[in-house]
Fold:
Amino acid sequence: MLKFMRDRMKTIMIAVVVMFVLSCFAGYGLYSKSDKTSNSSKDYAIAEVNDHKIMRSELEQVVFNMAQTYGQEQITSKDMLDLRNRALEVLIIQKENLIIQKEIEKEIKERKIEISKEELEIAYGKVMDTFPTREEFKIQIENMGVSEKQIKDEIKQNLMKEKLMEDIVSDITVSDEEARFFYEPRRKSEFEDKNFDEVSADVIAAVKEDKKESKQSLFTKKIINTIDIKVLDKEIFNLPE
Structure:
């Protein structure tokens, strides 16, 4: 049962990676549209995420993109405050991701993690296989205005992150005591009331997975805890001084 669930999760994760890779480029297109709505002569920082500034022009561009999505004729002046706040959240997350990415890249470099050409080609093939045909995959990325190299670069980054996470948890072990402590309350619900010796391999695998997730989460939380967010222009978001 647990093996089936883990295999299913692998399938789900492949689909998530595909959508993540493609959405990265879709998002890039969203933010790199024309700056016709910006006035660079009056541009200034409205927020900071560590040393990353969020400019007024960036905010207005995202607001403009959101308004386009909903249809400009449906946007009233009362909606603008909500749109600005939502746009700020999007930009803060974007800057946070840049900070997290930079720290991850530094860790990857320190641990000398690399991806072989063969590993990359296999992963790229799996992404293409999620589409009905290779031709449909090519049409999709062409419509998004991205190249095969860009897709492969993004996949490579994700593979290196996976290897980093594997390296971070490589020293995890599970004692017999830990396994039995995990097994007892779940004996009937997850292990079909079988004796511990019959399911010990599955129990140990499950405990190890839990410990991996905790250690990986702790790694990310340590980075997030170093992030400081400051809103510099509180007036345009109707925030108290």
Remarks:
- Confidence is low (pLDDT under 50) at residues 1-17, 19-40.
- Residues 77-110 form the longest helix (34 residues).
